[in-house]
Amino acid sequence: MVYSVALDSEKELFVVLLKNVKNIPEVRKMVIGGSIQCCILKPSLIVDPLQIAVAAKKAVLNEQQNKMATKSLYTEILFNLSLSKNITQSLIKFGISDTDKNAVVCVIGKNEEELEKVLSHFQCDKPSGDQLFLPDNSLIKKEYKITGVETEVSSLLGSVVSRIAAKDFVSL
Amino acid sequence: MLLKQGAEAKIYKSEYLGCPCIVKERFVKKYRHPELDSHLTKERIKAECRAIVRCKAAGIRTPTLYGVDLAKRCIYMEYIENAKTLKECISNAVNNTEHADGNKDFIGPILERIGVFIGRMHSSNIIHGDLTTSNILLVGDLRSEDLQIIFIDFGLSSADESAEDKGVDLYVLERAIISAHTLKENVFNVILKAYAKEYKKGSSEVLRKLDEVRSRGRKRLMVG
Ligand SMILES: Nc1ncnc2c1ncn2[C@@H]1O[C@H](COP(=O)(O)OP(=O)(O)OP(=O)(O)O)[C@@H](O)[C@H]1O
Ligand SMILES: [Mg+2]
């Protein structure tokens, strides 16, 4: 299943979960080298596609207003997802690493063909069913500094999304 | 869709990334110096975002924050479906003549829970800054324990330890509850009792300050 949402009048965000990817080191090199345009996230840190959408929308807005902290929309998404102000750490934390088996792939483009093009480089199981994410809730709570009292009044997604949106003004 | 045009902001209902949302757009105040105006507006937006997140961390329900656009002076947040303000709920109950007197009984338990939340807020040093009954939303059956209580409108909030500012928060709410609805004075004691129980370390000093603020308020009324 592919998740998609409009980020503005021209750009759409596409997100898909890939399982048992066999060539992560290879695609990771291609992304870093610029031969494929996408960002690949660690599935364990993603609660819901909305989390990525909020980070991506913020990246698009920062790009329009020339306020990006990083060099590209895709690194900006990774940076926005993290609460850290340290770019390198954010990219390492939320970006896929060579030892991961599963991957969340995000593409910003005009249509789904752009996603298909990117996906053609991955050797993995066929995307199946409705499953979009494989969150590790305790890891997510640790990463976003969410404690027990908060989970009584807010969904995990609500807590995470609010922190991403307010990152520039809040330190917890 | 425009929901409300306040003194500071327009409130719209819209959609953000497919989710029903509230857009709070703070408008330009022409009588203010443009730079000062833009600075103040940004500060309020930042204060609102900070408080929304810090309240959650302290165990107080607030709308989910979706996005901020400082250039457009907008905050995008979760639209709370089927919400009524505390103000609407109290005045419905007070004005409802069809029912017998006992009908107001449900207000007590709600105020008690509100007292707990304000205690949490203040023990985390979050000053609301405009704690009126229009800025507390209720969702669900008023007589049920599952009733949800959501705090909104944090544009005047600050992070402060000041017992005085906390006392003013309580005073503002007390005036809003008692004067606007002609409820008995002791209704507010329900809030204060729950507040003190939740905020063990600092509440006695805040309650002293509340007394000071009250007497200043009365003097002001007498002087006219
Ligand atoms: N997230 C929300 N979900 C549902 N309704 C909301 C939400 N936020 C605000 N409202 C409604 O809109 C009204 C006004 O919102 P709010 O208090 O934030 O703005 P305001 O009072 O105009 O701001 P200010 O005090 O700065 O003038 C609320 O009393 C409530 O009825
Ligand atoms: Mg208000």
TrEMBL record, chain A:
Localisation per UniProt entry: Nucleus
InterPro entries: CGI121/TPRKB, CGI121/TPRKB_sf
Keywords on record: Nucleus, tRNA processing
Biological process according to GO: tRNA threonylcarbamoyladenosine modification
GO CC annotation: cytosol; EKC/KEOPS complex; nucleus
A family per Pfam: CGI-121
Protein name per its UniProtKB record: Uncharacterized protein
Species this protein is from: Gryllus longicercus
UniProtKB/TrEMBL annotation, chain B:
Domain called Protein kinase: residue spans: 1-224
Enzyme class: transferase
The organism's taxonomic lineage, starting at the top: Eukaryota, Metazoa, Ecdysozoa, Arthropoda, Hexapoda
Keyword Phosphoprotein (UniProt): yes
Protein name, entry field: non-specific serine/threonine protein kinase
Native source organism of the sequence: Gryllus longicercus
Compartments it resides in: Nucleus
UniProt GO molecular function: ATP binding; hydrolase activity; protein serine/threonine kinase activity
Entry EC number(s): 2.7.11.1
